[in-house]
Amino acid sequence: MFELLGIAPQALVAQLLIGLINGSFYALLSLGLAVIFGLLNVINFTHGALYMLGAMFTWIGLTQFGGWIGMPELEVPYLVALFVVPLIVGAFSIVIEKTMLKRLYHLDHLYGLLLTFGLALVIEGLFRHWYGALGNSYPVPDMLRGGLRVDKLFLPYYRLWVVGLALLACFATWYFIEKTKLGSLLRAGTENPRLLQALGVNVPLIITLTYGAGCALAAFAGVLAAPIYQVTATMGSELIIVVFAVVVIGGMGSIAGSIITGLSLGVIEGLTKVFYPEASSVSIFVIMIIVLLLKPAGLFGKVR
Amino acid sequence: MNTTAFTKISIVIFAALILLPFQDFVYDLFMMKVFCFAIFAASVNLLLGYAGLLSFGHAAFFGTASYVTAHVMKEWGVTPELGLVIGVICSTALGYVFGSLAIRRQGIYFAMITLALAQVIYFVATQVPFTNGEDGIQGVPRGDFLGLIDLSASSNMYWFSLGVFALAFFLVMRVVRSPFGQVLKSIRENEPRAISLGYNVDRYKLMAFTISAGLAGLGGGLKSLVLQLASLTDVYWQMSGEAVLMTILGGIGTLWGPVIGAAVIINLQNYLANLGGWSTIATGAIFVICVLAFRRGIVGEIAHRLKIQL
Lengths: 304, 310
Hints:
Chain A has about 300 residues and is mainly α. Chain A has helices at about 10-40, 45-65, 65-70, 80-100, 110-130, 155-180, 180-190, 195-200, 205-225, 235-250, 255-275, 285-295; strands spanning about 145-150, 155. Chain A has a domain at about 30-235. A two-stranded antiparallel ribbon of chain A has the order 1-2. In chain A, α2 (about 45-65) crosses α4 (about 80-100) and α4 (about 80-100) runs antiparallel to α9 (about 205-225). The radius of gyration of chain A is 20 Å and the shape is globular. The longest helix of chain B is centred in the C-terminal third of the chain and has 26 residues, at about 200-225. Chains A and B meet through α5, α10 and α12 of A and α5, α10 and α12 of B.
């Protein structure tokens, strides 16, 4: 059937995989945005910059960090970065929440957006100043080199690994929020923080930890992205705008909704690249426009 | 409302702007650039300050008009006032389309939708041939105003852009002080109440958005005449952010705020232009400081201290 359309199945599957990978990143980022928005009522514009930090720290760990501490031959391995970098970025964002965001909760939500927008510019600007605007490539870790050969298709292991791990992280987040005790506190906080606090729960602490965890998810996506894309200071700002469109399409009401929307939009974008390459960079925005026309509250959104 | 203080101060500032070309310590081009961005920031302020709508996509209107004006000036050879009008018509039409989509959601979603829609225009600008991609439209002729006055002379261009700026300023003032402006403020303060009073809130919002888009286009078109250049920077999302920053720094919901904000930011960018990333860092840092500690902005703070409206 695909031959009839003049499209090789290899190209289709390759683009599907790329679409799934992009979709995983959309899902991870929009998931974090949704959880943070639910509890803090803040749209975290720094999310893109934190994703960039994830990739950047991973690259720095491999190429520069050893030199800084006087051990030039030390290279922070990929697997270590996968655990440590999200923790560092999470801790960093907790500091942001404690020192700055906290002061804005009593104001209009727009101020949170503006503050995080400013912070994103600062972070991005600093890294562009330090490391320039050019991309740095991060080698695919040794154990994940090579790929699976099925018939005429070649599926790189690393890409499968990214999709698998991202799905796992999404599922774990969903499970945590929907099925555990702590998750139920988080959901209660989203519904009615005052009542929850009256029941003796430390709501400010939950808010801080949620913000840290949401940001850590973004950094986790960044670590996964480092070997696939060029690591640059601006890699996050282009992505965050697409993720905003994803969030508008899905609505931020449901965790599972964010994951499904993110993944499927990535796939659709990948397919557009096969069938109509010129439109691939705007495909998600076009879908956003259609959704706004047909179902303004978003696919999984509640009408408010 | 103490309008007399506002009128006095406005007269003093405009008198100073008229006298400015007769001395030589302020760079002409700098002032003209401030006029363009003051109009742009005023358009964001009209939405944010008076209707409570934060648009993060005004670069789309600014950039579209900038490209269109540059194109018609260069390829069709029209007079500058006609070039501006054509640019404004295009950005107004675009504003109507974007507005009718964006007002379907409120608050934070509104900001995200405008940002995403503006990104579409950015991608279009990178694809269509008439924008010349990375190079942009360079060497835009300024033409002869009304076919009579040659604007390539810097002093003539100064008067022209001052005139356009004054026009835009009074337009915003008229809109804000009209019954229409009062309804906008009531929507900002309490939307459900405005609805219950029988106002068709969506129509008012769309109207405000369309006017604001046209105004942003006026700033963009004028910019392409002043700098004789229309480029991808004009449609990039950071441009939208800059307009928002100028508004906040100057003072949200004040008429002179965006003007002062534009002057400060343009000045700052002049100083930091050769320092690469520092311009972005400074922009971001001012954002953070304004939001955390200086929410009234420069003009807003002055107005608050002196208990007047500016």
